[in-house]
């Protein structure tokens, strides 16, 4: 049983949440504004749908790297995540995805639940790689189906302007994959057509896509005009606070991702991002030419960043938990409700994380 200010699906209550066999069994308490007391905040555990690494390990290493990544992010309140790949040669990528299929069948000790895979590339525009290696490929139906057979591919990032990609988008969408548009030089019309073919979101909105101009709205303009969902990196390096606010007003279920690299949770220095070497310094991660290359962001810091912009805690929580769960169609995660998995985080009044629970198991407790 945990006591405090609990953010339920119906709003805040002051009371207790009861857990049994990994699930929430009861909620007790009364409606209360958290500002009227000094009790801790109890929120749904964070769900990060774009994670490349953490704790010095990179998803593309294969082996037990994903377990280390899941443990590192659990220290920061992430209770479930998508292991996110980098663009790589076909055989290498197949091997990594096959390994992640095995990882998704279990949960690492003291780690977040790996819900599946976000395939970020190789089906991107070679003219908009960002920090992706130069190994972009054109999506072919048979190859895509092989990936889907190897692991639970929950999300795929794709550039819609590439010939043949609209048909692949429709195929993946019909199979329940969430197709996101990103690493793209596509036009506004390209994006709108992709949404009509079943695409659902946009990868790290504003970054590695054609920008908004009032006479040429680009991918960003299509997202702001039409998207219900999009992911965004609120490390305050990738996106200006003003652009964050604009996106939040335009996109109803804009949700938070970290796009974190192996440098997350580590000191400044040299790290790996897929086949490339990156440098962590001054709070960011960059390639040798200065290009932003993922982030060092963690979800608890993302929460504090957004709260510092004046965004209400309940709204921020939805963008870290409920909306990503809804995006994947998960009705028993991302919310505190009877019958849902007991994925919970506890924050003190300064929004510092004091405990993380994954499926009812206490993973991390911090000294007050």
What report would you give on this structure?
α5 (188-196) packs across α6 and α8 (299-308) crosses α9 (313-328). This protein has helices at 65-74, 90-103, 141-150, 165-174, 188-196, 218-226, 241-250, 299-308, 313-328; strands at 2-8, 11-20, 23-31, 41-44, 46-51, 53-54, 57-58, 78-84, 113-120, 153-158, 178-181, 201-202, 229-232, 253-256, 269-273, 276-281, 284-286, 344-347, 353-358, 361-365. β11 (178-181), α5 (188-196) and β12 (201-202) form a beta-alpha-beta unit. The protein is an alpha/beta fold and 368 residues long. The chain has nine helices and 20 strands. The chain starts with a strand and ends with a strand. It has one domain (45-333): Alpha-Beta Barrel (TIM Barrel). The chain has a seven-stranded mixed beta sheet, with helices on one face. It has a six-stranded parallel beta sheet with strand order 5-8-9-10-11-12. Strands 15-16-17 form a three-stranded antiparallel beta sheet, with no helix packed on it.
List keywords for this structure.
single chain; 20 strands; 7-stranded mixed sheet; 6-stranded parallel sheet; 28% strand; TIM Barrel; 368 residues; alpha/beta; 9 helices
For the record, the count of structural domains works out to: 1
Fraction in helix: 25-40%
Question: Which structural category do the helix and sheet elements fall into?
Answer: alpha/beta
The strand line-up of the biggest sheet is 3-2-1-4-18-19-20
Mean pLDDT: 96
CATH superfamily: Metal-dependent hydrolases
The number of helical segments is 9
């Amino acid at each position: 049983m945990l006591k405090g200010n609990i953010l339920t699906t119906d709003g805040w209550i002051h009371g207790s949440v009861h857990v049994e066999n990994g699930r929430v069994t009861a909620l007790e308490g009364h409606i209360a504004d958290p500002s009227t007391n000094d009790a801790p905040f109890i929120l749904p555990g964070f769900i990060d749908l774009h994670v490349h690494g953490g704790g010095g390990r990179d998803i593309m290493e294969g082996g037990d790297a994903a377990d280390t990544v899941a443990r590192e992010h659990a220290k920061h309140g992430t209770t479930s995540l998508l292991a996110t790949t980098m663009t790589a040669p076909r055989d290498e990528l197949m091997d990594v995805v096959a390994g992640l299929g095995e990882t998704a069948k279990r949960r690492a000790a003291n780690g977040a639940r790996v819900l599946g895979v976000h395939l970020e590339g190789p089906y991107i525009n070679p003219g908009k790689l960002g920090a992706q290696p130069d190994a972009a490929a054109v999506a072919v139906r048979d190859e895509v189906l092989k990936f889907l057979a190897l692991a639970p591919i929950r999300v795929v990032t794709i550039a819609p302007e590439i010939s043949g990609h609209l048909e692949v988008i429709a195929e993946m969408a019909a199979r329940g994959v969430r197709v996101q548009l990103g690493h793209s030089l596509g036009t506004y019309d390209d994006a709108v057509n992709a949404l009509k073919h079943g695409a659902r979101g946009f990868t790290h909105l504003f970054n590695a896509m054609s920008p908004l101009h009032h006479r040429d709205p680009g991918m960003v303009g299509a997202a702001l005009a039409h998207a219900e969902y999009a992911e965004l990196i609120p490390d305050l390096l990738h996106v200006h606070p003003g652009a964050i606010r604009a996106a939040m007003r335009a996109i109803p279920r804009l949700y938070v991702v970290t796009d974190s690299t192996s440098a997350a949770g580590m000191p400044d220095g040299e790290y790996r991002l897929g086949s490339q070497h990156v440098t962590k310094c001054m709070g960011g991660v960059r390639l040798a030419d200065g290009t932003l290359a993922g982030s060092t962001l963690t979800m608890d810091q993302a929460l504090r960043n957004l709260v510092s912009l004046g965004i209400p805690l309940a709204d921020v929580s939805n963008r870290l938990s409920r909306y990503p769960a809804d995006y994947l169609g998960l009705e028993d995660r991302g919310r505190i409700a009877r019958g849902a998995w007991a994925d919970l985080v506890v924050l003190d009044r300064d929004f510092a994380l004091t405990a993380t629970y994954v499926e009812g198991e206490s993973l991390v407790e911090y000294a007050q």
